[in-house]
Amino acid sequence: MLAGAGLIFALVMVLLLLAFRPRADVGDAGDVRVWVIGLGLAFPMAVLAALLAYGLVIGEKLLPLASDDVVRVGAQGRLSTWSFTYADVPNRRTQDVLHIPAARPVDVSITTADVIHSFWVPRLAGKLDAIPGRTNILRIEADLPGTYHGVSAEFSGTGYDHFTFTVIAHDAEDWDAFLNEDIE
Amino acid sequence: MNALERHRKLTTIWASEKGFKGWFSTVNHTDLGRMFLVTAFFFFIIGGLLAMLIRVQLATPHSAFAGPEIYNQIFTMHGTIMMFLFAIPTFEGLAIYLLPKILGTRDLAFPRLTAYGYWCYAFGGSMMLVAMVFGIAPNGGWFMYPPLSSAIYSPGINTDFWLIGITFVEISAIAAAVEITVSILKYRAPGMSLDKMPIFAWYALITALMILTGFPPLILGSVLLEVERAFGFPFFQADLGGDSLLWQHLFWLFGHPEVYIIFLPAAGVISTILPVMCRTTLLGYGWIVAAALALAFLSFGLWVHHMFTTGIPHMGLAFFSAASTLVAVPTGVQIFAWIGTMWKGRPELRLPMLHLLGFFFTFVIGGLTGVMVAVVPFDWQAHDTAFITAHLHYVLFGGFVFPIFAGIYYWLPHVTGRRRFFRLGELAFALVFIGFHVTFLAMHWVGLLGQRRRIPTYAPEDGWTAINLISSVGSFVLAIGIGMILIDVILHVLTASRGRRNPWGAGTLEWAMPTPPLAYNFASLPHITSRDPLVDEPDLAVQLARGEGYLGTPRNTWRETLTVDIASGKPDMHVIYPSNTRLPILMSAVTGVFFVSLLLKFYWTVPVAVIGVALLVWRWVWGLGRGADLAPLSIGHGITLPNAGMTDRSPGWWGSVFLLTANATFFGSLLFGFAFLWTVAPGWPPPVWFDPSMTELGAGLSGAIIGPIAMRLAKSVNGKGRNSVTGATMALFGAILIGVACAAMMWRTPSPVDHAYGATLFVLGSYGLFHACLAMLMTSFLIARIVRGFTSAVRRAEFSIIGLWVDYTSVIGVLVLLAAHLPGVLQ
Amino acid sequence: MKDIFRILIAPLVWFASFSAVYGLHGLLCGHEVSGVVLGLPLERAYLVAAYVCAIAVQVVLIVALYSSRLASPSPFVRFVSHATGWVGLIATIWSLVPVVFTTYCG
Ligand code: HEM
Ligand SMILES: [Cu+2]
């Protein structure tokens, strides 16, 4: 996407510069068919159609499709902390640390107890908002075990800059241990 | 009469009061345009200083420069000032200054309204400044999302300043938009058909229409949120049947078109200046008009792209993603038409041209990153990061500030009548250009690294320190550049080297007059036969000064002009403008009392202010009347025209049409909000429904039938020269019936603080009641006019205008009552 | 006024149909509907039908704007209204194309 944008930008700049070249005769250089219909209409429409198709296809792929493997967790934002719950261990609740298994799809049900927040773990997925009165579901997946940095990405007043959390992706063994309450 | 005598005579008729007193009573568009522009640039400087504070804060990690409470106010006020107090008023000021000149007429359609708009802007803007000085400025970000901005999470007065102050300023936008629309459609030089209109006028027309349809959703949202904060009506509270997403829809229904409302006037400036800088004409005039129209429309179908992360279903996102990519096409048409124009001509690197190149470079990048964030998965990452802030500045600075700088340098000789003497501008441009790109390229980058927008501090471990420092250094270079432009402009105004007329060799009419411009613009009005009148007729200015055009002979002490048929440009009415008056500033001061009372919760002064405004409006309109018929008047060249007060489609009628367009959009947004809550919000159905009553419904509906019929009757009776007081009284009676039905509905609605259902019905009812009262006021006015002998078969303009308002009141009255009663009746 | 109307009508209708289809989609997802028409799930069938209607209306508008009876006497207004007519049609086809293949209510 970036490269394509760079090319288009370069094209426009070159055309702009060429306008300054010394010319003997300016006559029909300004042809509506070339400039408006060709460059103005046809060219962007072709590029944008491709881009749109690409975006929609990727969007379909990111949808939380049903799968047996899915782990369900809950994330509730509340001015300056996130608390997490786990469908597999009903009484478990963690504060500011979300535990997930690595290499398995995880559906996060995002809710809020007060204002709008947004759940964002940049390396695992895009962001999704926590809206009062609603539950939004985000599919995330960590390929490798490890610690991932997460932030609240909707402005929520003072303290917003420190409003962050951590996601720990466990390998299969650790995840079992977590489910059996061995890890805190 | 020779040119000098004509000039003297016209000057006594048209001049504003001398000295600073004149500022308060002037209704002249040149004065008010300049006042608008100077005030807007004052706010630009304030907004720019706030931007510097933001960059100081972000320059280093763990910055202790400003605490979060203050920092949140700083960025909120920066965004708010730039959008509402700088960008929109700059457009208004430019249009107000330029339009009558470029269209070849003497003033805008409603001179007193221009002044009223200016004072509302000045007072509303001052309110925001006061809030800032006392450290109680809004702090929820420029889009003020509830519930963060609701009474529970923002109990202070900060948010109220935003909701009330900005609504006050918005009045000036609506006033200017009505004014600009009617002026462009009707107030042109004879012969200027739609296809001969200067391209700037097209852009201004489209922008004004967008303001009329784009601002009402925001005004509605602000009203609802303020009512929620002040009285606890739960429009945006999920547990009581409201929905915080409703605010987001209303805000962005305004917010996205807003971006184009800012860009289109700048595009108009580019389309005007660029051909002159290239010594040629604009390539593809018709295509550009069509592209600007397409842009305006498409921009209303994109608002959800600001809400891609709110969890809207996938297909919904796909619609808006598709529409968002499509909007790039008309933008592309304009960009390439402009480059084609440059190829067609011989571009010269004069100062305005430098800024235009700055525009191209910056805006194209902003457009490309815009297309990127239109792609949903990319936006899920970029949303609410510094990448977005960088993108929006590429669009706004590139698409508005650079073209406006070009415009300033282009029209400055027109405003002052002087030549540029010092050559600071070129260096200033270089600093602005370099500083801007350093600042915001760095912000793109740090945004991709994950820096969120609106954070007051970050940690050294984040790894953003160096980039932020670079960005901040860039912003200081930028600030120095802008400072130099300011100095350059001030020096230009102060130096005494007279310039020559039409220094750029332009073809448009604003240069067919002496500079600085005279109070009356043209001593006589030109007849237009092409898009570049000055190219065909280089000494047009002299001919007009000699009185060879229309209306060349001053009559009585009238400020005269004429209007034309929209499409063909044939003259159709003769107009006499009101002259200097302090009524506008007085009325906006009383309007200010209304808003300040709401802000400070002095509810007992609210009705006093409302009555005050009503009385002033009465006085305002009363003065337009005439006690005797006026025969058709000669405008020269053998043409006679009826005076506007002796027609059915007077300027007041046209103004009402467009004011009602904005009003209908407001009402439509309210109905949309009702339907949205009903179908989408959690927490429905409400605990109790409204109890329908056939009596009330019947009373309201009969009022809605009686009113319009009675007005038509009154009009036709008056047309036959008979006394029409019975019809007008019947119309008054109809309005009373609607008012009673709406009041009853408000009285009996389920408690508005318990559920959003009751709250919405209450607001719908008050909307109906307000219009019923307005209709009562207007019909009473008409009765007073008839009784006092101010109407006749010839003096009939008021019947059409008031008829329009009565019709509107009836339609919305029926809809309001049905919305409340129908569900119950059907069950 | 008529000329202004000719210029604005097609994009206005686009805006109306765009909002209507978006609203329809919201309604369909809010109220469980089920069934199959012509091998399509009912929701999809409704949406595609609305899409086709929206396109048909735009085509009718274009035909009207080109017809000698309804077109404007001014060549310039004719040009601009034809252009905005095409804008309406293309915008309808383009912005609502997701109804054909993207997942609804996901
Ligand atoms: C004069 C040079 C300018 C500089 C250096 C500048 C700088 C900034 C910075 C650093 C922010 C981001 C604060 C943050 O969220 O972390 C910001 C926000 C913003 N700026 Fe500017 N800006 C400038 C001019 C403008 C102009 C001309 C406009 C509009 C016409 C504008 C509109 C905005 C808006 C709407 C925001 C968002 C405020 C919010 O998040 O609530 N800025 N600006
Ligand atoms: Cu937008």
UniProtKB/TrEMBL annotation, chain A:
GO MF term (any one): cytochrome-c oxidase activity
GO biological process: ATP synthesis coupled electron transport
Reaction(s) this enzyme catalyzes, per UniProt: 4 Fe(II)-[cytochrome c] + O2 + 8 H(+)(in) = 4 Fe(III)-[cytochrome c] + 2 H2O + 4 H(+)(out)
Protein name as annotated: Cytochrome c oxidase subunit 2/cytochrome aa3-600 menaquinol oxidase subunit 2
Keyword Membrane in record: yes
Entry superkingdom: Bacteria
Residue stretches making up the Cytochrome oxidase subunit II copper A binding domain: 68-181
Pfam families cross-referenced by the UniProt entry: COX2
Record's GO cellular component terms: membrane
InterPro entries reported for this sequence: CcO_II, CcO_II-like_C, Cupredoxin
TM stretches of this protein: 34-57
Keywords per UniProt: Membrane, Transmembrane, Transmembrane helix
Family per similarity comment: Belongs to the cytochrome c oxidase subunit 2 family.
Membrane listed as a keyword: yes
Major localisation: membrane
Subcellular location, record wording: Membrane
Automatic annotation (TrEMBL), chain B:
Pathway noted in the entry: Energy metabolism; oxidative phosphorylation
Localization per record: Cell membrane
TM regions (residue ranges): 35-54, 74-99, 119-141, 161-187, 199-225, 259-278, 285-305, 317-341, 353-378, 390-412, 424-446, 466-491, 583-600, 606-625, 653-677, 697-714, 726-747, 767-787, 799-822
Record-annotated Cytochrome oxidase subunit I profile domain positions: 8-529
Membrane topology listed for this record: Multi-pass membrane protein
Assigned protein family: Belongs to the heme-copper respiratory oxidase family.
UniProt-recorded name of the protein: cytochrome-c oxidase
Species of the source: Yoonia ponticola
Lineage of the organism: Bacteria, Pseudomonadati, Pseudomonadota, Alphaproteobacteria, Rhodobacterales
From TrEMBL, chain C:
Claim: Transmembrane is one of the keywords in the record: yes
Keyword line: Membrane, Transmembrane, Transmembrane helix
Lineage top rank: taxon: Bacteria
Organism the protein comes from: Yoonia ponticola
Protein name in UniProt: Uncharacterized protein
Sequence intervals crossing the membrane: 7-25, 45-67, 79-101
